[in-house]
Amino acid sequence: APIADIPAIGTRMPPQSPPVPAADLATVRDWILGGAKDANGETGGPKVTTPGSPPTGLRDAELATDRRGSGTITGSVVGEDREPLAGAFVTLLLAGEELEGGEEHYRVAETDAEGRFTLSDAPSGRFLLKAYAPNAIYVSRIVALDEGETEEIEFGLPSRVVPNPTISAPRVEGLELSLDVRGTNLDGNYTLAVNPDAGVTVELHSVDNAPGRWRATIPKPLPGRWVFMAVDEQCNISRFLTAAR
């Protein structure tokens, strides 16, 4: 199955990456300059194609529409020091024009003491995976699975250097989940409440993505712990907090 990284222009290179070849640096430079605004606010347009291209077959794969299927995704999550990250989350997102922000988190797997995870019953088709850990920068993968296929995927998460966003006071009150979120450039799709025992991820929202109390309502009570986090538009992840019941 084809897999692709999503480039994050403006964030740091993955940990311990080799030097970028001079020819590639020139390509990136021309690409950035071609899209940069001049003094009049105009862009010259990209003079070269965006660096990198999806693996063969990824564009041809249909978007996944079902939340569950017969596929399996296994893999690992490591930190900037290349050590396994226990208690990290790998989420599965489906895309769709009818979804807020064009995508929505549906499933989640938690890493064990060795940083390993298994996401069973994965749908067939093309979808997105994201890996999160406390005080890190999240990483995304585009994946396309055939029915019944098993895929191994590895994530390496850089550490964040900016203490943004910050969170406090997570609560689970009946069917309402809520969290206090502070900071700048808060991402409206990535303030999350995760129930790893149920394998469920819920997106919390606030009016205009403003700092304050972010909330979500779940359809029915779920046993197990709820772990909360927030993310900003630069992919920085807050600490994780578990709600007291």
Give a brief rundown of this model.
The protein has 245 residues and is mainly β. The chain has one helix at 22-35, and strands at residues 3-5, 71-78, 89-95, 103-110, 116-122, 125-132, 139-145, 150-156, 166-173, 176-182, 192-195, 200-203, 212-217, 227-229, 241-242. The longest helix is centred in the first third of the chain and has 14 residues, at 22-35.
What layout of secondary structure does this protein have?
Elements: E1 3-5, H1 22-35, E2 71-78, E3 89-95, E4 103-110, E5 116-122, E6 125-132, E7 139-145, E8 150-156, E9 166-173, E10 176-182, E11 192-195, E12 200-203, E13 212-217, E14 227-229, E15 241-242
Parallel strand pairs: 2-8
Antiparallel strand pairs: 1-7, 2-5, 3-4, 3-6, 6-7, 9-10, 10-13, 11-12, 11-14, 14-15
What does this structure look like?
With 245 residues, the chain is mainly β. The chain folds into two domains: 3-156, Immunoglobulin-like; 166-244, Immunoglobulin-like (Sandwich), CATH 2.60.40. The protein contains one helix and 15 strands; from the N terminus they run E-H-E-E-E-E-E-E-E-E-E-E-E-E-E-E. The strands form four sheets. The protein has a five-stranded antiparallel beta sheet with strand order 1-7-6-3-4, with no helix packed on it. Strands 12-11-14-15 form a four-stranded antiparallel beta sheet, with no helix packed on it. The longest helix is centred in the N-terminal third of the chain and has 14 residues, at 22-35. The termini are far apart. Mean pLDDT is 81; it is low at 7-15, 45-54 and 99-103.
